[in-house]
């Protein structure tokens, strides 16, 4: 099961296709058998490419990233507003940690979305 996309179960569709194939009359020629097999295979593989987006999770992730970005910007702005003679500030350390966390989160999201896209095509 994907994080941002919900894949459809193929078991009901495959059951229908196999049942139709078992109950059907045998084709009269090998060309007709190949054509029927290709048509059934195309109908099943078209169902493979159908991914339903999970909009609530996607919008929730965007809101989470936006909130983290706003917090990071606020802390970085406050850290830059420190006097120049302040060399050791917890605010500057926190700002660096938040920027690193934000960068890691963006990388993880891109990795998850890319992984889902690749696995859905396999």
Low-confidence stretches: none
Structural class: mainly alpha
The rounded Rg comes to 26 Å
User: Strand tally, please?
Assistant: 2
> Strand portion, in percent?
under 5%
What's the arrangement of secondary structure elements?
Elements (H helix, E strand, L loop, with lengths): L4 E3 L3 H13 L6 H19 L2 E3 L1 H26 L9 H32 L1
Antiparallel strand pairs: 1-2
Helix pairs in contact: 3-4
Feature tags:
mainly alpha, two-stranded antiparallel ribbon, 4 helices, 5% strand, 2 strands, 122 residues, 2 domains
Tell me what the structure shows.
The protein folds into 2 domains: 5-51, no CATH class; 54-121. The model has no long low-confidence stretch (mean pLDDT 77). It has helices spanning 11-23, 30-48, 55-80, 90-121; strands at residues 5-7, 51-53. Helices cover 74% and strands 5% of the residues. It has 4 helices and 2 strands. Strands 1-2 form a two-stranded antiparallel ribbon. It starts with a strand and ends with a helix. The longest helix has 32 residues, at 90-121. The chain has 122 residues and is mainly α. The radius of gyration is 26 Å and the shape is rod-shaped.
Q: Would you kindly provide a brief summary of this structure?
A:
The chain has 122 residues and is mainly alpha-helical. The protein is 74% helix and 5% strand.
